[in-house]
Design brief:
It is found in: Membrane. The chain has 16 helices and no strands. It is an all-alpha fold. The protein starts with 7 loop residues before the first helix and ends in a 15-residue tail after the last helix.
């Protein structure tokens, strides 16, 4: 009943347009992100994203192309945000708390994905809020409000923060290994970084998890509607399930991984490999089951599979994401940008696969999509099991040769 007559292929391109925008600037962010203030970079990125979100309904009335262009600009701004957050993580938390930290702040992704889907459905049905345009007005305004709070309370380092006590500053300065000097672009060990097997593990896992995440976030509602013929109210419930299960999994897995390493029961590298194996191989099995078991005659079987998938998926954050924060603190921004590049490539691959299969009208579209995600998860888990590490690498201080 809407007035925007966009085809399914156009809708798929809208969902992936921000990924294409991020792809344009990700190379720039990987080269310069470590040179500037991460807190200010994040503020600017969020402001651009929020303003374009607020005016999105007006842009849709102008033309489809204008709206897609705005989504690409949002993607360009967002390519700087996650690396900036990860740089702040290395500057504010000691290594013994990195896994718990990663589990804590990445849970925001699950809360955002879960609550935004639920809130959007309610806003869309609301006559008082006048339907879907209010989604963009509300979400954009909340982002701008967050920027105000962020600018008041956050600094690049604990030593410059007025809300941190002297004892806290002294403790963090003593226990955090983040370098105080900016890395030099000219002397950065690019060859050593590019040939590092732990870095390859991080990038491969990032691609696998990015493919699974984008598939679930963008296409799970479509799958539930097309394949299982679920009503709208159940689609909302089932869509929320894996995201909240991920939060529960991170709450347990993150502190547990740090605890066993801190107590000396095992090394942090071995603990993260166990967590990564749970995340990769467990998610692979759940995705394969999700591809073949649920049908329109027994749609309820999808719920326990989604719960299992969400819970074990959290292991990846306690695995490769912890490595991202520990193997080279001086180059966390660069590694984060490269990691995001692979994640964006995975998002583009996921949306392109769905678009191609939709245009071909193949009856096996969803088994192919979820089966591909399952295989990628297994490959990423196997590589990290053999080559992953949380140890600080020999090139992490700028030395290009071993």
């Amino acid at each position: 009943q809407g007035h925007l007559a966009w085809t399914p292929s156009q809708q798929s391109f809208i969902l992936s347009s921000s990924f294409y925008g991020s792809f344009v600037t990700i190379f720039l962010s990987s080269a310069v992100i470590d040179q500037f203030s991460p807190s200010k970079i994040l503020s600017v990125g969020l402001i651009v994203s929020a303003l374009l979100t607020i005016i999105a309904p007006f842009l849709t009335d102008l033309s489809y192309e204008v709206f897609v262009g705005s989504r690409m600009i949002i993607g360009m701004a967002e390519s700087f945000i996650i690396p900036a957050v990860n740089i702040l993580a290395t500057r504010w938390f000691p290594t013994s708390e990195k896994t718990t930290l990663a589990a804590l702040y990445t849970s925001g992704l699950q809360f955002a994905a879960g609550y935004s889907s639920l809130a959007s459905a309610q806003i869309c049905r609301s006559t008082a809020l006048q339907g879907w345009p209010s989604i963009f007005y509300i979400f954009g305004s909340v982002s701008l409000l967050f920027v105000v709070v962020w600018c008041i309370f956050v600094n690049d380092r604990p030593s410059a923060n007025r809300w941190t006590t002297v004892n806290e500053k002294n403790y963090l300065e003593e226990h955090i290994g983040a370098p105080k000097k900016k890395p030099s672009l000219r002397t950065s060990p690019w060859h050593a970084l590019a040939t590092s097997m732990p870095v390859h593990s991080i990038m491969l896992c990032s691609f696998a998890f990015g493919f699974s995440t984008s598939t679930m976030q963008a296409y799970l509602p479509s799958y539930l509607r097309e394949q299982l013929a679920m009503p709208v109210d159940k689609i909302g419930l089932y869509t929320l399930t894996p995201f909240f299960a991920q939060v529960a999994g991170k709450t347990i897995c993150g502190p547990l991984t740090d605890y066993v390493a801190r107590k000396g029961y095992t090394t942090l590298t071995r603990a993260t490999k166990i967590a990564q194996s749970l995340g990769s191989f467990g998610a692979s099995a759940a995705l394969m089951a999700f591809a073949y078991f649920p049908t329109c005659t027994n749609p309820g079987s999808a719920l326990p599979i989604l719960l299992t998938y969400g819970f074990v998926y959290a292991g990846g954050v306690c695995g490769f994401f912890t490595s991202l924060l520990t193997i080279a603190p001086k180059y966390t921004g660069t590694l984060s940008a490269l990691c995001q590049l692979f994640s964006m490539l995975a998002c583009i691959a996921s949306s392109s696969l769905v678009t191609v299969l939709t245009s071909m009208e193949t009856p096996y579209k969803w088994p192919i999509v979820f089966g591909t995600a399952s295989v990628l998860q297994a490959c990423g888990g196997a590589h990290y099991l053999f080559f992953g590490s949380t140890d600080k690498q020999y090139w992490s201080d700028g030395e290009p040769h071993k």
